[in-house]
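Show me any protein, fold above all:
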Amino acid sequence: MPFPLIALQAFELLRGLPPDQLAMAGQQMHESTFARRAIVIKKDEPSPALGFLIEGRLQAVDFTVDGREVGLYFVEPGDYFGELSIIDGERMSEFVIAVARSRVAFLPRGTARTLMFSMPSIAERVTTRLARRLRSVSTQRRLLGLASPFQRLCAQLLQLLETSGGGTITITSPPTHQEIAIMINASRETVTRAFQLLQSQRILRRDGNSLRVEDPGQLRAIAEGRREAPKA
């Protein structure tokens, strides 16, 4: 059954494609549903298709030498993933897992490559996103070099602020404590205690489904090691 054109137009990468190109993509797409914590794409295997997230949330993860799971980036609805393996045909360098029940549409590798290499607008979007993701992952790996879990948490919150848009002090739909723990290589209990301390110091406040940073200067000072973590 062809994937509906109106649904295809919701994917940012495909937005603006001529109707015939969209129809071709829709004819070849197939949809799968993944339970929470299910593996969507495995590391060390070539990706056979370019994935598009319809609903839910995905996270790319890898593992440290001692077996600790580390989160690298999130995939939100409307976004795509697996493009690096599609481009070069090499194996995936990370796992992609569902952190919530998720629906994913897959576009076969051959069709995805045709779109990427024959449509300048698609090629520009892919290369721009690859550059942005490379910078983000590099920042994430530097963050993991910080000695203190509390310092890593503050640095992670600042990074989430940056990806939410310039000048904002609100993190909308923030990751769960468990997801953040994976991102900073710490336990969930450590993250929960750190959040409680930040809120008690009025540096951070939960606002419905969002996090509001009340004192970005203090958060940055802790992240950069210019201020010690607040005491309980």
